Amino acid sequence: MTVGTRQISDKLLAKYRAWDTVSEAEARALDSVFTRQASYPRGAVIIRAGEELDGSTLLLSGFANRYKDLSDGRRQSLELSVPGDFIDLHSFTLKRIDHDIGALSAVRTAWAPHERIREITAELPHLTRLLWLNTTVDAALHRERIMSLGARTAAERLAAFVCETRERLRVVGLADETGYDLPLTQADLAELLGLSMVHMNRTIRELRERGLAVLRDRMVRIEDWDGLRKFAQFHPGYLHQRTEPR
Amino acid sequence: MTVGTRQISDKLLAKYRAWDTVSEAEARALDSVFTRQASYPRGAVIIRAGEELDGSTLLLSGFANRYKDLSDGRRQSLELSVPGDFIDLHSFTLKRIDHDIGALSAVRTAWAPHERIREITAELPHLTRLLWLNTTVDAALHRERIMSLGARTAAERLAAFVCETRERLRVVGLADETGYDLPLTQADLAELLGLSMVHMNRTIRELRERGLAVLRDRMVRIEDWDGLRKFAQFHPGYLHQRTEPR
DNA sequence: CGGACTATTGAGCCCTTTCAACTCGCGTGG
DNA sequence: CCACGCGAGTTGAAAGGGCTCAATAGTCCG
Fold first, then answer.
1. Nucleotide nearest to B42 (CA to C1')
2. In what order do the strands lie in the sheet with A37-40?
3. Are the beta carbons of B136 and A78 separated by less than 8 Å?
4. What average pLDDT does range B68-89 have in this prediction?
5. Quick check: B44 and B59 in contact, CB under 8 A?
6. I want to staple A214 with a disulfide (CB 3.0 to 4.6 A). Which of A83, A108, A221, B171 is the partner?
7. Closest CA to A158 of A110, A102, A118, A214
8. pLDDT, tens digit, for every residue of A76-85?
């Protein structure tokens, strides 16, 4: 899959380079940890809670989400995963993870055995810290989600989500000023934002009527980036990107 | 402060030993990273968002919380910190953190320069993985909070909080079957659980009337542990403790 | 003894949910 | 070719959980 400078870990690398400099040697080492690739259709469960894992999975393309269920059927999405995300890197230390990860669209993945990651931690301290940083930035995303769920209204929450997702996708080259593709149903979004599907629909309409963003046909069109940021009170510091947003 | 086997990192060590075995050499190394200690009164800001940090702080005694504010005054607590918590270990990779950390009670802390932590990462790979694990378990706590805020009712949320806090405190010797001290006001709890103070009060009453738990006089008395667990749908797997709960 | 903080309770409102009906587009089978 | 079914989206109406406003009481402390 190596075409010119294009590599498996292209997007992951782009993300890491938004955080810190990565040498060519480190980039090669990072790319070399990935062995087999796989594909999943929408709806497939990529990782199941509680399984013992001996490798971690990189999302090459498509979207996925972490979620937990309550026994009476209530389901909460914990986090959206976008291309370039190392969706279960935390299993390197945790061994088994406490939630499922499902495919929200057709998905391609690459898999890195923990053994190979361990070799990196033995040999490349700076790259190791980047992997660690990856997991701590994931935690920072979690915290912002807590903020949203606890303190933002439905419309603000959706706006913040649109902003955050735009920044995450921009780093891996999948979004620009005008917007991005987001192949999720309104039901998926509702689950992610802790809203009912009906209210999700009305909230999407509200954002459109406010002239901030339009979500339609699996695409997000940003109408007024500054207005959206302001409305959501989106402060991208928690993404810890070096590059100035916007 | 070393009295017999008692050390600064006593509680931190107890927590790590609930996750994995820690050798005596590792325990000594861990203890030795901490240099100066400090005290803060209730209400003090221990760590301020955005500051450049060159060390991480261990909570020796007392309670703290992470929080973020919105510009119009809405404040959301992100996570409770209990004794033995390395409250900003993530600053080791992040350099600056994206939220404040405040003292919810009188607090004692110890401080570890990042330089010393870096020495550990160079010399003690297994202990390094435990430190990394610490940050990934913190993320697991965040995820459970997202679950609570997104999918649990107020009463279930409080019940889950009481269960989780009981397990976290039990590991460091600060809780037993009957309950534990929790020196937080109802306003603190409300902020933590994303509720208004008034509704927090009513929710506390509901838990009491259900015969599950009594929160009064800065103490939590657990009346019916099994009932509480069941009501909250508390599944402690996400804490990743080896010891069987209860 | 006043003041500040904390806890408690009532009442009304509002955001969000639930229930329900209906549309639209699309793929499949008769 | 059309009927049908199904998933996704949309809208209305009513119910409900939690919030806000407001008032009262208890407690600690200077």
1. C5
2. A37-40, A107-113, A55-61
3. no
4. 95
5. no
6. A221
7. A214
8. 999 999 999 9
3 state SS of B174:
coil
Confidence at residue A244, expressed as pLDDT on a 0 to 100 scale: 54
Q: How far apart are CA A156 and CA B115, in angstroms?
A: 40
pLDDT digits 0-9 by tens, A133-190: 999 999 999 999 999 999 999 999 999 999 999 999 999 999 999 999 999 999 999 9
Neighboring chain A residues of B94 at a CB cutoff of 8 Å: 133, 136-137, 140, 240
Q: Is B48 on the interface with A (CB under 8 A)?
A: no
Q: Which nucleotides of C are covered by protein (CB under 7 A)?
A: 5-11, 15-20
Q: Determine the Cα–Cα distance for residues A172 and B64; give it in Å rounded to an integer.
A: 36
Backbone angles phi, psi at B136, to 5 degrees: -75, -30
- Chain B interface includes A19 (CB < 8 A): no
What is the 3 state secondary structure string of chain A?
Answer: CCECCECCCHHHHHHHHHHCCCCHHHHHHHHHCCCCEEEECCCCEEECCCCCCCEEEEEEECCEEEEEECCCCCEEEEEEECCCCECCCCHHHHCCCCCEEEECCCEEEEEEEHHHHHHHHHHCHHHHHHHHHHHHHHHHHHHHHHHHHHHCCHHHHHHHHHHHHHHHHHHCCCEECCEEECCCCHHHHHHHHCCCHHHHHHHHHHHHHCCCEEEECCEEEECCHHHHHHHHCCCHHHHCCCCCCC
Better-scored residue on pLDDT, A89 or B74: A89
| Residue among A245, A9, A246 nearest A117 (CA) | A9
| Cα separation, A106 vs A42, whole angstroms | 5
Q: Does the beta-carbon distance from B139 to A90 stay under 8 Å? A: yes
Question: What 3-state class would DSSP assign to B125?
Answer: helix
Contacts of A140 in chain B (CB under 8 A): 90, 94, 98
Chain D nucleotides reached by a protein CB under 7 Å: 7-13, 17-22
Write down the pTM of the prediction.
Answer: 0.95
Chain B residues within an 8 Å CB radius of A139: 90, 135-136, 138-139, 142
pLDDT digits (tens, 9 = 90+) for A227-240: 999 999 999 999 99
pLDDT over 70 (residue B14): yes
Residue nearest to nucleotide C20 (CA to C1'): A198
Q: pLDDT value at position A6?
A: 63
| Nearest-Cα residue of chain B relative to residue A230 | B71
* pLDDT at residue A5 tops 60: no
A76 touches chain B (CB under 8 A): yes
